[in-house]
Amino acid sequence: MAKNITPREKDYSQWYLDIVKEAQLAEHSPVRGCMVIKPTGMALWENMQTGLDQMFKDTGHQNAYFPLFIPKSFLSKEAQHVEGFAKECAVVTHSRLKAVDGGVEVDPDSRLDEELIVRPTSETIIWDTYRNWIQSYRDLPILVNQWANVVRWEMRTRLFLRTMEFLWQEGHTAHATKQEAIDETLQMLEVYRTFAEDYMAMPVITGVKTESERFAGAEDTYCIEALMQDGKALQAGTSHFLGQNFAKAFDVKFQDKDGDHKLVWATSWGVSTRLIGGLIMTHSDDQGLVLPPKLAPTQVVIVPIYRKDGERELVLEYGDAIVKELKALGVRVKLDDRDNFKPGFKFAEHEARGIPLRIAIGPRDVQNGNVELARRDTLNKEVVSRDGIGSLIKSLLETIQFDLFEAAKTRREEMTSEVESYEEFKSVLEEKGGFIYAHWDGTSETEERIKNETKATIRCIPFEKGTSGNCMVTGKPSLKKVLFAKAY
RNA sequence: CGGGGAGUGGCGCAGCCCGGUAGCGCAUUCGCUUUGGGAGCGAAGGGUCGCAGGUUCAAAUCCUGUCUCCCCGACCA
User: Fold this and answer.
1) Which of residues 130-189 of A touch strand B (CB under 7 A)?
2) What is the rounded distance in angstroms from the CA atom of residue A319 to the CA atom of residue A182?
């Protein structure tokens, strides 16, 4: 195991990869562009799933599951949608292999009449299904979510942030009215904002995407945008108002109270394992991963310290009692009783894995009725009384959760600028990076020009109120400043 | 898909230029000593050198092809 996580500054990518590796979250698979999520990483994702899933249920949604394979013809039904995804699809063309001297080859006789696409997203197959589910206004709304894997044949991949196959959830809802669909879109965006901020302790900016950044097939794409420690933005979640595009493409109509047949209004929304990448880049430091208590698979680890066998039993017994007490309070706690590692090694290892709180217990502590408590986020250590440890830890976990969010928010604010001129924009982008608010004339041409010249994109048109002014590039009128950044 | 770098025991690397039976550190196993910030000594096990061809008496090393990974671009959650 490496002694240290690599220093940042120049080598942010390497720093990121080292954290993923040292924290045992995931590793590259021999399969091109794919990733193996290790048990520790999966435990983290499961906690995220649990939190999100509960929020979906609380807002009236149910889970369902749709096929992995999508007939090619489905994908061609919505013009914008095809254009967006056609270039990155895995296609199944055959159904059999046959043995050929020691190996296998694709059996040419098994060619499929219609190729199957491995879903890059499920709008098409779901809307094809919804057609049969929806007859009357009484069948609406349909509020369904699916937890699934999807495949996008990306040119370049990066662990968690962009892999060929990734895990996600995709919500797909159908509504009788436009307003109801828009409300749903915004409601789910708010769910994502709440999850990012309250669970992940990752502050986000909410807003709407420009036309060029919009989801293929959507009328409006809303998003949450987070800022990573290297000053690059990460699109952490999207919620789309799909209008009637998919209803038209898949002929999904319902008979309304007034007897008229009407097209259904749609939304879709999703977040993926990319959130784990965002979590890593939001909080981690040079000691490794830092996890917010609400999501940490293990919230507290107890490290026993001893010299002689008698001491080992003594501290383990002391530690066991604390484990029981914390478990009874619903704290996820582990006692690290491995005898083949020294305490110092364990300290470093648990820090690299991001466990929010560490309790060290030596004979001295048992003697005095104390424990040593160490916070992962601040790396501060203090000796506290063993009595009342349960309630202290409960409140400390909450404090850490809160402090992580505040620290991340402060970092983001330090990395956020507001500029008036294009020159200023370029120099801030060059020297500081981060989020930059600037006026823009609302055209794709200007947006494209800025992107080509600076690599910065419009992350979103924020919901926040702003004042009008003039586009920093063309001088044309602008209603309010929009959010720019270089992005992952 | 363009430009750059790299694939050698589980991990990190040396060896390659100049061909001659594969080495170091960490990890693993065993023993003893250690244990309040990544332990020490001794012994042992483990590799068709990414893959496929070619040159050669002989290939990790030279040649050709191919796959994968990393970094920078274009594309994207």
Assistant:
1) 152, 154-159, 161-164, 166
2) 53
Q: Which of A478, A411, A476, A423 is nearest to A454 (CA)?
A: A423
Residue whose C-alpha is closest to residue A266's, from A276, A252, A279 = A252
Name residue A130's beta-bridge partners.
Answer: none
List all residues 6 or more positions away from A310 whose beta carbon is below 8 Å from its beta carbon. Answer: none
| pTM of the predicted structure, to 2 decimals | 0.94
Half-sphere exposure of A392 (CA within 13 A, CB side): 18
CA A480 to chain centre: 28
Q: Is the CB of A9 under 7 A from strand B?
A: no
pLDDT in tens, A236-249: 999 999 999 999 99
Closest nucleotide to A156 by C1' from CA: B75
Nearest to A300 by CA among A326, A328, A329: A326
Enter the ipTM: 0.85
Q: Where are the alpha helices (DSSP H) in A231-368?
A: 245-249, 274-283, 309-328, 343-352, 363-368
